[in-house]
Each structure stands twice: as C-alpha cells, then as structure tokens.
Amino acid sequence: MEKSELKHGIKEWLLRIDLVDRRPEEIIALNFGLFEPYGLELIGSKVYNLEDDDWACEEDFIPTERTCQGITFDDNQTWQEILSMVYSIIEELSAELSELDLLRVPHITTGFSDGDLLIVK
C-alpha cells in the first residue's frame, strides 16, 4: 500500500472514531500502536509518562473501532520502514486534523507494542 493510500485509510478511520466515540476529557494521551502481523490500533490514557512507555498500557479509552481496518503494509518493507511511515502519517494527520476532538490531546505517540514509543506531539 502506498503512503497516500495508507494515510487516506488512517484518516478515514480517525474521522469515523471521532463521529462514534466521544473522547473523555480526562484522556491526555493517545498511542497508535503497531503490531505484527502488521496492523495499527488506537488507545487513549489518562496518564502519560515521558520516562516510562508503560503508560500506554493504561487503556482508559478504547474506541469502538480500535483497530484500523482495510490498511495493509507491503511484505517487503522492514519494521523500521513501516514505523517511519506510520510516524510520518500520524504527524501529518495530527496537524491536518487538529480541530478533531479526538486528537485534541497534549500527547500522541506511536510505536510497536514491544518497542520504544516515538513522540508525535
């Protein structure tokens, strides 16, 4: 899947979540978690800790459509390439959709569940 197609799929997913699920005000952080075989999920948390990525295990907000459906990653891409592309897309969408209530949190990260999180904002 090309980056533009992937970005479109993630954008449509975020727009659907924003329509269906009201993010509670106490949610201060979102994590776009990557997993293998490659997929993307979203959780929100009431806590955030720059020094300890385990904050993302506190799943205080789980959208109805937790996993982004309909996106695929090329089998020939490395996990580093996938992480880089997803990071770039989340960064772009957090700016483009800054008025979306879902994304109006102080902290957004992404990364693989068994690795370090990258700070988007």
Beta strands, count: 4
Radius of gyration: 13 Å
State the end-to-end CA separation: 26 Å
The amount of beta strand, in percent, is 15-25%
The percent range for helix content is 25-40%
Side-by-side strand order of the widest sheet: 2-1-3-4
Q: What can be said about the biggest beta sheet?
A: 4 strands, mixed
Mean pLDDT figure? 95
Per the principal axes of the C-alpha atoms, what is the gross shape? globular
What class, by secondary structure content? alpha+beta
Number of helices: 2
SSE order, one letter for each helix or strand: HEEHEE
Low-confidence segments, given as residue ranges, are none
3D structure, described in words:
The protein is α+β, with helices and mostly antiparallel strands and 121 residues long. 30% of the residues lie in helices and 18% in strands. It has two helices and four strands, in the order αββαββ. It has a four-stranded mixed sheet, covered by helices on one side. Strand 1 and strand 2 form a beta hairpin. Helix 1 crosses helix 2. The longest helix has 18 residues. The radius of gyration is 13 Å and the shape is globular. The two termini are 26 Å apart.
